[in-house]
Write a structure and sequence with these properties.
homodimer, alpha+beta, Arc Repressor Mutant, subunit A, SH3 type barrels, six-stranded antiparallel β-sheet, two-stranded antiparallel ribbon, 8 helices, 8 strands, globular, binds manganese (II) ion, DNA-binding
DNA sequence: AAATATTTTTAGACTTGTCTAAAAATAAAT
DNA sequence: ATTTATTTTTAGACAAGTCTAAAAATATTT
């Protein structure tokens, strides 16, 4: 059992998340951008993570997670999302308030804490933003979901997640009455700016292309 | 609102706890011993804390908390003990398992987390070890309690706390059926080694002076 | 293929928090 | 009042994690 610092863990998570979106090795600049650090700092950290066998790193060629690095990153995401469920379901925080707490709580170390928390929360399978929570063995649930921008007028869907987790977007959704599980019907797409005319609970709204892009739906 | 590192917070807590036991300024060596660091490291940290106005530090003369330092230390103890209640009451950990988790959780920063946790736990006034939890305004509850070593044969008391929070002691108490709220009667004190003959739930046991010293009781 | 642009790494520096060893200040003992 | 012992501080070093600026490697254009 090797021990990792919070900084190392955050880099591992970032590598995992970039790998999810784009295939192939993660490049130094992409990692630095995701971490909000300089490319030089990312290079330093990649050497450290490579020494610890958590990543396979080749100079100038990018980095991938080793099985152990993947396991650790998955565990961090599990912890992050379980704590978010706790903060929303038990402490009554709104879905836009919990991310910064979870960023800290995911680094709490010690035997059994995660599994006890999971048990206490009744093994939730999705977090407050609709993201899947890997189980104790690191297994993921993948749901078929599409962006609102891919619907054709007349199609309906149920909100299953968001791609933008920032407060301004989540609060904007709150104002529109959009939450996980809410039904949305695409009425029309404006040719000029690709904005979406939608019906939510009987009322009509217009969502920008940017907002539509960040909404995931399960088709009805 | 100044921001503090975990290391700074741990030193503040240590200064607070030493001040509780012994009056007057806290000396460098005592602080270093409590923190498990060298005296040189303690001196370095005292300079940092002094720069941040969290302590009043005079070279060679020792250190005391400023009002702001006292407020911060109290808040840390509040957070530590509330998390311990959560871990025992909600997650089902034993009282000897929660300290290391709480040492990490007490450093989680952010608005309202502590008060929401306090609310969720129904404003507990004591932690799983019988220690008082300061309220949101930093007010303490002080209970009259005495060590088992101060009782005279024939006296009875209810266990209200422990002075040793380590696993070996707490697990030893578990084996004897000693927990918070349990009634203990002192039957006799052995002159030779000051051990205590006691009755707990009808059964008789012998407790060493060391163990007796670490048990707090409210007299019946 | 050579020149140019981009990406990545290296070099050197800074902060936090720690250490050991030596120096200085204070306290205790003769 | 000196000497001796103890406590505390300073000096110098190190690791983690960050930065900026310069050098090197790779990719793209011409
Ligand atoms: Mn989050
Ligand atoms: Mn989330
Ligand atoms: Mn504790
Ligand atoms: Mn406690």
């Amino acid at each position: 059992m090797l021990l990792t610092t919070s900084a190392e863990e955050n880099y591992l998570k970032a590598i995992f998340k970039i790998s999810e979106k784009e295939p192939g090795p993660v490049l130094t600049n992409a990692l630095a951008a995701a971490m909000g650090t300089s490319a030089a700092s990312a290079t330093d950290m990649l050497k450290r993570l490579s020494d610890k066998q958590l990543v396979a790193y080749e100079k100038y060629r990018g980095v991938t997670l080793t099985p152990e690095g993947d396991r650790l990153a998955t565990s961090l995401i599990r912890k992050h999302r379980l704590w978010e469920v706790f903060l929303v379901d038990k402490l009554g925080f709104a879905w836009d308030e919990v991310h910064d707490f979870a960023e800290q709580l995911e680094h709490v170390q010690g035997d059994n804490l995660t599994d006890r928390l999971d048990e206490y929360l009744n093994h939730p399978r999705f977090d407050p933003h609709g993201d899947p929570i890997p189980d104790a063995q690191g297994r993921w649930i993948r749901r078929p979901q599409v962006r609102l921008t891919t619907l054709t007028p007349g199609q309906k869907g149920i909100v299953t997640g968001v791609d933008d987790h920032t407060s301004p977007f989540l609060q904007y959704l709150d104002e529109l009455g959009i939450a996980l599980g809410v039904a949305i019907e695409l009425l029309d797409r404006t040719a000029y700016d690709q904005s979406s005319k939608v019906r939510i609970a009987g009322k009509e709204y217009t969502l920008s292309e940017k907002a539509s892009q960040n909404l995931f739906l399960r088709l009805e």
